[in-house]
């Protein structure tokens, strides 16, 4: 953690006041403070910094503690399967269908969202920190947020990138529905395959938190979220993660979008670039005519996206949600002129 990060971007997890944490460094390297203590100047709470990570997960419910412990067990399984520093550093460019989708999705964002160097982005549920690294290498000021620290499945994995000089980004241990991040402090929030780790109530809380931490005009980027559809009304098949106690809940597309709108966002859907209909050229001859007829018409694209999001399935949910900008302040001169006009009309 860099010394200037805490007072500018963090929120006390105890009293929930913005920008009240000060950092006392016990051990530093040329890049950052590695060991230290964060102290709230408002309530006096003290939280540790360990291996550069701000430990701000306070009062976590039991299901988050169980899920974090499960991620540590999953990291052990990954080691047994041959995962190491070098393989993580290759993500998402490895020969695997799951990672193909992840890679295609982040490339789509980088090509279509007008990111500018120096803008700030929060990577929610950063896990192996591969996306945090990619955004940081594109010049963004990145904060990785997760509930776990275990290497291969948590925030300490960031050292695989930072120690090699590939990039630098901040790391914060905390929950998505009670973020220890200061209000109005971020240009982007990135949620990739993480929102389904909320039940319906905490999903709505998470969208409200995303709205709070974004600057006016900031954007929430929702990518690859698990969906319920008419074809698959369950969405999450929990037996695959039961041994790791993953707290997983699929939601309907309208539930994701409704929670975002309820929090105050305006929304638009993201077309899944990895799906055959939205790729160019289409992979099979017989689909060319259908794709040409529908793809060249905006109504056709919207209708097909609605079909796969709500009925057919086979894709994950994506959305860009925008926090409205603050209305421009009227200058004192304009206000005075308006008052004079009113007086003249009434006279």
Helix/strand layout:
Blueprint: H1 5-9, E1 21-28, E2 33-40, E3 46-50, E4 53-55, H2 62-80, H3 85-90, H4 97-112, E5 120-124, H5 130-137, E6 141-146, H6 159-162, E7 170-173, E8 186-192, H7 200-213, E9 214-225, E10 227-228, E11 251-252, H8 253-263, E12 266-269, H9 288-295, H10 298-312, E13 317-322, H11 332-346
Parallel strand pairs: 4-7, 5-6, 5-8, 6-7, 8-9, 10-11
Antiparallel strand pairs: 1-2, 2-3, 3-4, 9-13, 12-13
Helix pairs in contact: 7-8
Kindly list the characteristics that best describe this protein:
347 residues; alpha/beta; eleven-stranded mixed sheet; 13 strands; 35% helix; 21% strand
In short:
With 347 residues, this protein is α/β, with parallel strands linked by helices.
Structure, described:
With 347 residues, the chain is of the alpha/beta class. It is built from 11 helices and 13 strands. The strands form 2 sheets. An 11-stranded mixed sheet has the order 1-2-3-4-7-6-5-8-9-13-12, with helices on both faces. A hairpin with a 5-residue loop joins strand 2 (33-40) and strand 3 (46-50). The chain is globular, with a radius of gyration of 22 Å.
